[in-house]
Amino acid sequence: xxxxxxxxxxxxxxxxxxxxxxxxxxxxxxxxxxxxxxxxxxxxxxxxxxxxxxxxxxxxxxxxxxxxxxxxxxxxxxxxxxxxxxxxxxxxxxxxxxxxxxxxxxxxxxxxxxxxxxxxxxxxxxxxxxxxxxxxxxxxxxxxxxxxxxxxxxxxxxxxxxxxxxxxxxxxxxxxxxxxxxxxxxxxxxxxxxxxxxxxxxxxxxxxxxxxxxxxxxxxxxxxxxxxxxxxxxxxxxxxxxxxxxxxxxxxxxxxxxxxxxxxxxxxxxxxxxxxxxxxxxxxxxxxxxxxxxxxxxxxxxxxxxxxxxxxxxxxxxxxxxxxxxxxxxxxxxxxxxxxxxxxxxxxxxxxxxxxxxxxxxxxxxxxxxxxxxxxxxxxxxxxxxxxxxxxxxxxxxxxxxxxxxxxxxxxxxxxxxxxxxxxxxxxxxxxxxxxxxxxxxxxxxxxxxxxxxxxxxxxxxxxxxxxxxxxxxxxxxxxxxxxxxxxxxxxxxxxxxxxxxx
Length: 503
Fold this sequence. Notes:
This protein is α/β, with parallel strands linked by helices and 503 residues long. It contains 16 helices and 14 strands.
C-alpha cells in the first residue's frame, strides 16, 4: 500500500515538473517576471482604491462636464501613472537624486498638465481646477528616500498636500451647497479619495516610502544616457548645449547652494508654483521670492472696464489709472479685477462678490459685498472697506504684500489667508475720528498737507499711504502671522502663531 502511494506521488510530481518546464519555454520574455506584480497585495489594494473612490469622483465629473470633467480625467491619469511607478520600482534599484528625477518625470508631466489647466483667467470652475491641481502633489510621496532629504514622511505628505487643496475644495462646498448636488458630490468624493483613501493606503503599504527592488536595472538620469557630441577635428571643443527647457524649473535660486537634497530635485522637475510648494519644503524667504517674481509674467491684453451680460464687471489690464470708478452696480453683480498695475478702483454701491487676481500695486475701495472679497496671486495691493455692512468674508491667497483697511462696520469680517506673506490689517481705534475718510482728512490737515488735498481726487485721498499720516491718526495696525508652531498635546496637534520679541 505504501509503495503504491509513493509511486503515485512521484508520478504526480513528475507531471507537475514537466508542465512547469513546458510553460516556461512557451511564455514570452518578461511574462514570468511580471506575474508577481499582478498578485502583489499593494498593487491589488491600489486597484481597489481606484475602484472605490476614483470611480465615484469620475461619475460626478461626468454629470458636471466641461473643465471639471477634463481635470478629473487628468487626475485619473495621474493615479494610473502612480500605479506604473509602483510596479516599476520593484524592478529597479533605489536611485540617487538624479535618477529619482528621471523616475518621477512621467508623474511630473501629468501634474504640470493639471496645473496648466488651472492657470490664466479665473473661470466658472476655477476652484475645481485649483483643487484638482493642488491635490495631485500628494502623489509625490513616492519621492521619499529618507528623512534626511527634507521631505515629510509619505503619510504626512499626503495629509499636508490635501490641506493645501482643501482651501479651494471648501469653497466649492460653500458655493454649491444649495445650488447643485453634483458639485458637492464631486468635492466630497475628491476629499475621500485622499483622506482617508490614499492616506490609509500609503500608511498600510508604504509607511517608509516606495519599495525598491534589491536587484534589477538602475534608474539613470537623462543626462547620464545622452551621448556627448564631438566637434569636427581641429575645430576645438563643441559649443555648450542650449539652456535647459523653461518647462523645467531652472532658475538661479534652484541651483544655489542653499537648496540641496530633495528640495533641489523638485525644483528641477517642477515649474508650477502649486506643484513645487506642495512637493518640496522651501524656506519662507525663497518661497516669497519665487512667488513675487511670478507676477511679471502676466499676459497683458487691451484694458477693459465693462459690464458683461449684465452680471459681471470686468476690470482688466489697467495700468497707471488712478480714477477708475464703478458706480452703477447692484447686489446681484460681481466684480473681477485682473492684471491691473499702479491703479486705483472705487466701487460705489453693494455688489455680490469682488475678486482681485494677479494685480500689482493695485488699490481697491469698495462699499459693501454680499458674499466675499477675494485677493489671489497679487503683489503689494491695498484694499479698503467703507460701507455699513462691508464684507462678511475676506480671502487672501498666494499673495505677497496686502494692506487691508477695515472700517468700524467691517470689523466682524472673517479673514482667511493661505500661502501669503506681509498681510497687514489696519482698523480704526475707538476714538471719535475713527472713520477712515475723516481720519485721512484730519491727518492731512494736521500734517500741513493741504496741497495734497487740492491735487488729489477724493478717491485718492482714501488710499494715501499710511506713512504720510502723523502719529495722531486714530488707527491700529495688526500684522497677520505667517509662521506657526505645531505641538503635540493631549493626543492632538495644537497650532499657534509664532511671535518674535526683541531683546
